[in-house]
Amino acid sequence: MERAEWLSQVRRGILEYSILLLTTKRSMYGYELITALNRYDVLSTTEGTLYPLLKRLEKEGLVVPTWKETTPGVPPRKYYDLTEKGLTTLDMMNHEWGCLVSAITQIKNGMEGSSNE
């Protein structure tokens, strides 16, 4: 398997998780999310990936968009906020992420465990 293919597979769920984490801190608009994600090479994304993902998260009730005026004369921007359902989902993701990292760390260190959470 090529590096790019492997990273593509891994990034799919991590991008969703990252967006929920970012929108927990404050409302963000699409380009702002892209900029935040692009600070990390492994999370780098494009509009063609982000906007369909945001639409899906909106359909699932995890984020809610709000049009906001920023500066007079500048078109309003669509900001995304985490919903209560999104917060519950994020709590679950945080728990599962911890379990996943712990399991991978144990495997890397040669300490295969039998814990199934």
- End-to-end gap: 29 Å
Task: Tell me the number of helical segments per DSSP (H or I, 4 or more residues long).
Answer: 4
Total E-strand runs? 3
Query: Could you report the average pLDDT, rounded to the nearest whole number?
Result: 91
Helical amount among residues, as a percent range? 55-70%
Shape: globular
Keyword list:
single chain, globular, 3 strands, three-stranded antiparallel beta sheet, 117 residues, mainly alpha
Write a short abstract of this structure:
By secondary structure, this protein is mainly alpha-helical. It contains four helices and three strands.
Structural description of this entry:
59% of the residues lie in helices and 12% in strands. A hairpin with an 8-residue loop joins strand 2 and strand 3 (77-82). The chain has 4 helices and 3 strands; from the N terminus they run αβααββα.
